[in-house]
Amino acid sequence: MLHAQTGVRVDLLGADVIDLTAAARTLARAGALLSIEGPNEPNNFPINYKGQPGGGAAFNWLPGWLLGWFPDWLLGWLPGWPSWLPVAKLQRDLYSAVKNDPELSRYPVFHVSEGGAETDNVGLQFLTIPAGAGTLLPDGTQFADYANVHNYVSGVRLGYVDNQAWQAADPTLDSHWDGLYGEYGRTWKRHFRGYSNAELENLPRVTTETGWDAATPEEERIQGTVLVNTYLAQFKRGWRYTFIYELGEGEGGGGNQGLFHQDWTPKLAATYIHNLTSILADNVPVATPGKLDYSIANAPSTIHDLLLQKSSGVFELVVWGEQVTGANSITVNLGKTHAIVKIYDTTLGTTPIHILSDVNSVPLTVSDHALILEIQ
Fold it and tell me: Which of 133, 172, 277, 280 is deepest in the core (most CB within 10 A)?
């Protein structure tokens, strides 16, 4: 029903291969399936596969660098030490089941989330285990089509800083964000080696959870600007899908990360995202994208840009700022004179705030949110 009324498609996740693929087939037949995903955060939610417990996070009080000194065979003797081998086998078997199913084979498989917490080197830091990796499962074992992280834009013990979304989306950054590097470059729990930085830049990847907590009017505005910036930064930096946690806030606690309040009135985040998608909306593929010879003068490192084009030929140049305080004056040079340029502000609505005629450059004041230049 949701798919029929809204076009929503589902990323179906779980830890039971048979039930998961059966449900996926049902969704696929309705056209409502987006992807299939393995277990959710097995470090926080251990699984049981074929009678074997897997995942968990025993000895979390020990720092990763200290655990790195101990070989797997020795850790395996510790009482309560959790193996991730059942998690890896489940993900391997799920991938095989999907790719060998005539109804499901064309759908992408997303990897386990929080695989960087693996306690033994089972190889979950790879989509396919490469030759010579030295993992417990053999070279060539296939797990997924896409790496999968929960790189919450809010970060860990961070607060609100410049370039918040841009840094969270960085595929090689090892910092306050639970990013791609800590899951697939060098695992955050025991520092097992995965992909090089150059490989991470091009690794197919999705974010299945990110979000921002907001309980007050001031926090709600920040949530709205940051989450719009998150969508833009993630897309610009090569993420195929980005899922926001969460749509609506439940009554059982869990923070204030919803885009809607408990009574389903929209927060500013819902409004700002709606403004962004309404301005950019176009469901007709562009067969041959055009080019816009633009440049931005006087842009500091907190200003970013993304060029899109609609099927009508109109360019949509998104310019967003990630500066916590203050603003910057910049000039967007368009390369030649354009008949009409409309300027939108994603925090103000879906109608232009300015319409310019016969211009070859546009001055902008950019602070902490996204502006859109629609160039005829």
Answer: 133
Spell out the domain ranges in the chain: 2-280, 295-375
| Cis peptide bond N-terminal to 246, omega within 30 | yes
Q: Please answer whether residues 344 and 366 qualify as being in contact, where contact means their C-beta atoms are separated by less than 8 angstroms.
A: no
Residue with tokens 């498609």: 9
Residue 348 Rama label (left phi>0; alpha psi -120 to 50; beta) = alpha
**How many CA atoms within 13 Å lie on the side-chain side of 173?**
16
Mean pLDDT computed over every residue of the chain: 94
Q: Residue 299 and residue 290: Cα distance in Å, rounded?
A: 24
pLDDT single digits (tens) 138-147: 999 999 999 9
- The predicted model scores a pTM of 0.92
What's the CATH code, domain 295-375? Answer: 2.60.40.1180
Composition of the chain by helix, strand, coil, percent to 5: 25, 25, 50
- Structural tokens at position 15: 């830890």
* b (16+ CB within 10 A) / e for 32-49: bbbbbbbbbbbbeebbeb
Q: Is the pLDDT of residue 274 over 80?
A: yes
CATH number of 2-280: 3.20.20
Task: Decide whether 2-280 matches 295-375 in CATH topology.
Answer: no
- Closest Cα partner for 120 from 140, 132, 134? 134
